[in-house]
């Protein structure tokens, strides 16, 4: 083999590794367990934005099965925008407020005895 073929092979392998890592980082969260269907989200303009903009990359069920604080939703929405979600700052605020109001942290459950 020539040095050029070896270099091209190494570069191809490196590209494959980097591309695979990038795809893994963008994958949607795991699907909910059987029998734990996503709750029906309340209607509203933010729901339309979530269905139109978020649902293009992952299922909206993966969104509605989560319960997070407003700060955590803000960080998650920002991460999605950083990854390419098409949201204006006004859309972001509307979606964050909607998710925090309707999918905020679940109340603590009593400890089992």
Keywords for this entry:
Cytochrome Bc1 Complex, Chain D, domain 2, single chain, 2 domains
Low-confidence stretches: 14-35
Strand content: under 5%
Largest sheet report:
none
CATH topology name of the largest domain, in short, is Cytochrome Bc1 Complex, Chain D, domain 2
What structural category arises from helix and sheet content? mainly alpha
Q: Please provide the count of β strands.
A: 0
What is the CATH-assigned architecture of the largest domain?
Orthogonal Bundle
- What is the total domain count? 2
Specify Rg, calculated over alpha carbons.
Answer: 20 Å
- Estimate percent helicity: 55-70%
Shape: extended
Please give the count of helices. 5
**CATH homologous superfamily label of the largest domain:** Cytochrome c-like domain
The ordered H/E elements are HHHHH
**Average pLDDT score:** 78
CATH class of the largest domain: Mainly Alpha
Q: Termini separation (Å)?
A: 69 Å
Walkthrough of the structure:
The longest helix is centred in the N-terminal third of the chain and has 24 residues, at 3-26. This protein starts with a helix and ends in an 11-residue tail after the last helix. It has two domains: 1-28; 43-105, Orthogonal Bundle (Cytochrome Bc1 Complex, Chain D, domain 2), CATH 1.10.760. It is mainly α. It has helices at 3-26, 45-54, 61-64, 70-82, 89-102. Helix 4 (70-82) packs antiparallel against helix 5 (89-102). It is 58% helix and 0% strand. The chain is extended and about 70 Å long. The relative contact order is 0.13.
């Amino acid at each position: 083999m020539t040095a050029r073929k070896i270099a091209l092979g190494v570069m191809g392998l490196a590209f494959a590794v980097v591309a695979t890592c990038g795809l893994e980082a963008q994958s949607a969260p795991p699907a909910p367990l059987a029998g734990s269907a996503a709750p029906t989200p309340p209607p509203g303009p933010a729901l339309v934005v979530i269905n139109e903009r978020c649902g293009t990359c992952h299922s909206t069920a993966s969104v509605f099965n989560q319960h997070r604080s407003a700060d955590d939703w803000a960080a998650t929405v920002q991460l999605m925008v950083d990854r390419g979600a098409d949201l204006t700052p006004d859309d972001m605020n509307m979606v964050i407020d909607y998710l925090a109001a309707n999918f905020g942290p679940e109340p603590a459950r009593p400890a089992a005895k």
